[in-house]
Write a structure and sequence with these properties.
The chain has a domain of about 80 residues. By secondary structure, the chain is mainly alpha-helical. It contains 3 helices and no strands. The longest helix has 17 residues. Helices cover about 30% and strands about 0% of the residues. The chain is elongated, with a radius of gyration of 31 Å.
Length: about 130
């Protein structure tokens, strides 16, 4: 019975042609010059509002995130779709954010009626 021929992968016919890897020593510390000191505490700057007169509208607005309940997200999307379907002037896109901004304006208009210590109390003070 003949001896089986050992199999090899392409490029590994000779141990001299194998690739070797080298690892550089890690850099420890700051890459800044040693005579420069970092500030002890850094207070993040408040977000700057970008004012672009001729650019898209979203660039004139300040980004603010909010956590919404699932039922709010669903109802908001349904309302947006309904309003989009029934409008006659299509020059401006109605988005969920559009409706949120309208809701904030409505809340601020009735801020004098707002009172309470919990979310439910606050909501009940301004809704019928």
């Amino acid at each position: 019975m003949p001896r089986p021929v050992p199999r090899s992968r392409p490029g590994s016919a000779s141990p001299l042609t194998r690739l070797t890897t080298t690892v550089e020593a890690p850099i420890v510390g700051s890459s800044k010059p040693p005579n420069r000191q970092e500030p002890k505490s850094v207070t993040p700057e408040p977000p700057k509002s970008v004012t672009v007169e001729d650019g898209p509208r979203y660039l004139r607005l300040v980004r603010k995130e909010a956590r919404l309940r699932v039922d709010q997200v669903d109802a908001l999307a349904a309302l947006r779709r309904q309003l989009t379907r029934h409008r006659t002037d299509r020059s401006e896109i109605i988005t969920d954010n559009t409706l949120i901004r309208v809701a904030v304006d409505l809340l601020l208009t009735h801020a004098h009626r707002l009172h309470g210590d919990t979310e439910n109390e606050l909501r009940n003070s301004v809704t019928p």
